């Protein structure tokens, strides 16, 4: 295990030079205090968990101190935001402190969010608030525990520094880990500014550092784009299967690694509503839950456009056509598992869609608890338990009869079925009202609730004694919280 003093830095992105990022020092926050830390994320850096107890821990991860080998850089990029192109964005409140090399040979970006003003801050103040920092921390780690690719969150550091949003709040910093912070918008920036040499340099960097297997292909850039597309098809399938709404799928928020990235007004569905809009600033519903699939495809098309200096247009179009079939195959496989099936049958996709249509009709079926309860008893008994959440009882009974017949063809006993279904259907989900309760306590100086919620969500499939309230259906007020992009 390593200490804070023995971390090994190898800052590959910084070595690309000033065309790709700008050297900036973080602006410290006053009276830094550790709010919450992820033991699993510490392990990615080989850090001894006891290091989080040291006073210097909060100083280092709030910008009050720096490692001698850190090279803080604000990355430049552009992006399509709500469909319109913004030519110059960049890290307006975040800094890439450097890349830590662990014993396994993995490079992990240390990204400090809320680090103060940068050349890309535009009209902002470069700060993040405690509320948004806690939300990103919880979401990153909760998604990872569910098996959904995501950036990771190391810790949140609070402070007494005042920040103005809709009201006065306090500044905080989040340390985010990812193996790359390159975005679709990173490529768009160099394409639209006609810096094609730098575009190629960025692609070569991504190939060498993150997709070395593509270098063995006859056309490495084509292989790179296809790999990015494949990863994003699987990512979006996992979002849809587990009811996750990102809320701001701008191209600058899409990772070249196919991980969930840049959390804002996200939400997990409570009652199933395919048209749910989790961002109250999204007046047109561009980033509604049901639109996440076509928007991901659109964003990949925007990336393809940026790669036209490196890849023939016809080849890019050919690769883009793979997205929807790949997405559907991943989604169907995930939903089969959630329903307890181990094999594939031709009618499965129709069975899944009929179920979602029935859920949509009443908007009163808890999307997560439905699947959990469906696995707790034998199929016939479980169907009677979940039946009461549906409005169209006749339609549900017809679906239930088909589901029962399909389950019987699987032939496994109930103990095996329950174990199989409980391993993929979470009991605990990050619901907005739970996050809001933890945030309210943290804003009063009580960090115990956010730490407990994090611990519960780190084992979402495992029933935990004394944590029953985290598995309850949300109260009505908890289903209608408005979340904005404000941070």
TrEMBL record:
Cofactors: Mg(2+); Mn(2+)
Catalysis: reaction(s): L-tyrosyl-[protein] + UTP = O-(5'-uridylyl)-L-tyrosyl-[protein] + diphosphate; L-histidyl-[protein] + UTP = N(tele)-(5'-uridylyl)-L-histidyl-[protein] + diphosphate; L-seryl-[protein] + ATP = 3-O-(5'-adenylyl)-L-seryl-[protein] + diphosphate; L-threonyl-[protein] + ATP = 3-O-(5'-adenylyl)-L-threonyl-[protein] + diphosphate
This protein's record includes keyword Magnesium: yes
Enzyme class at the top of the EC tree: transferase
Residues annotated to bind Mg(2+): 253, 262
Function: Nucleotidyltransferase involved in the post-translational modification of proteins. It can catalyze the addition of adenosine monophosphate (AMP) or uridine monophosphate (UMP) to a protein, resulting in modifications known as AMPylation and UMPylation.
Name listed for the protein in its UniProt record: Protein nucleotidyltransferase YdiU
GO molecular function: AMPylase activity; ATP binding; magnesium ion binding; manganese ion binding
HAMAP family the record matches: SelO (MF_00692)
Record key words, sorted: ATP-binding, Magnesium, Manganese, Metal-binding, Nucleotide-binding, Nucleotidyltransferase, Transferase
InterPro entries from the UniProt entry: SelO
